[in-house]
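In the previous chapter we treated chains in isolation. Here, by contrast, the input contains two separate entities that must be folded as one system, with a combined length of 555 residues.
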Amino acid sequence: MATIYDIDAGGRAPALEARDVSVFYGAKEAVRRVSLVVPANKVVALIGPSGCGKSTLLRCFNRMNDLVVGARVEGEVAFRGKNLYDPDVDPVEVRRRIGMVFQKPNPFPKSIYENTAFGPRINGFEGDLDSLVEESLRRAALWEEVEDRLNESAYSLSGGQQQRLCIARTLAVKPEIVLMDEPASALDPIATQRIEELIYELKKDYTIIIVTHNMQQAARISDFTAFLYMGDLIEYGPTESIFTNPREDRTEAYVTGRFG
Amino acid sequence: MSDHLSPLGGTHSARDRRRRTLGAVFALLCGAATLVGVAALAVLLWDLAADGLPSLDGRFLTSFASRVPERAGVKAALVGSVWLLGLTALIAFPVSVAAAIYLEEYARRSWATRLIQLNIANLAGVPSIVYGILGLAVFVRTFGLGRSVISGALTLALLILPVIIMASQEAIRAVPPSIREAAYGLGATRWQVVSMQVLPMAMPGILTGTILALSRAIGETAPLIMVGAVGFIAFTPKGLGDPFTVLPLQIYNWISRPQTEFHALAAAGILVLLVLLLTMNAAAIILRNRYQSYR
């Protein structure tokens, strides 16, 4: 099993820590006893071939698996000194503090403004909503493109713009961690590049965990990389060493493109 | 066939021509099938207009039923139909939508929900006269509501409940899961996801289903005879407990009379019924477009 405690968190408390996390869909074990530490203000990439459990693991970190009928999570996910799966933890609050961006852009069928304002509204935001919307859109590098058309439908935006709107929408509820599930896989190379630049910017204020099947992307944007294979965490470490000097044969085979 | 690309155009093989002909014939047949419905409606309207239009005037709309054809009008039936449909919609819509939301968003998939589902589907196929008997036994007798407009509305609401529930479920199911995920991912509660995202997106489909169901209700006669709608009435309902009549009953009443003057009145009554139906459908389309404004 991969060692997990050799991650240098820079002396700071980790943003998130998974301990022996397993996920079952019915009788099928999709993720098997995974432990890893996510340092604060870093980008952690989860890579691996299709069906290796990387998206499933990501969805454990904000209790999205609760919504899947027949899914069961074992183990602990520590966040701010608390296990996310403790009975007194409200999954609704977890999802507010640990935001998520999905594979396909999924804006609501509402205006650009209303999309961004939805999260703050439902969470009882009291204050200047207009400036929060502007701030969120600026952080998602979308403001200049939409400032004079905030009341137009979100569906009038291009795919890449829609995904940045989804990121803005997530940022508007001021999460501490942002989970991204292959956020650029449905986008063209230019839009992908913009998202990658954005992730690099966001690292200053957020901890980001990103699932990607694109190894170049993982190498470009992440500080740490976890390689999963068939539900097991094979290796986890600084991205550079995973890609240039992996300890496990399977990791090397995958990152050099011999399978997957 | 040779290796190089053959030029476009030129001669076609016999097989090629045959499949083209087949395609053209199929398109023609489908077009003809479409025309059957349109033609039937056109003939019906033509026939009705020829018989009914002369009798259809302001006096006809504002007079009560009478033994004298020249004085007979549709007022009681028209007002009764509007009352009945309004009440039916008020009762059936919230109950059906709530049931659909429960079944789609809250209920766990178990044998119990499957049984409920099966029952709803079966109820949609029960003949309307059976609902009439139920209405008579439960609303008129047991609840003591009497032969009143509220008894009729409750009976019709039961009749269209399964149809609206199933249409609403269909509409709710058609809301992409990604929208629910997006809302949950922002820290929305189930109630917020349902009320702020799922329902608004499903509303066009729900409204369409409701209007279709109400269009069925507007033409119902049998269950209303059971709960005691009267064929001859000289006043409009003032409250929920008042007796009433409806357009189809009035039309039936006129048609079954021997005098031909009453048959013309029946045709005029049918025209009024069709206009009412058309107005409802138009209202549904306007409502639907309003909800779809951001797509």
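The beta strands of chain A are 16-25, 28-38, 43-47, 71-79, 82-83, 98-101, 177-181, 207-211, 224-229, 232-238. The two ends of chain A are 20 Å apart (CA to CA). Compare these points with the single-chain example from earlier in the chapter.
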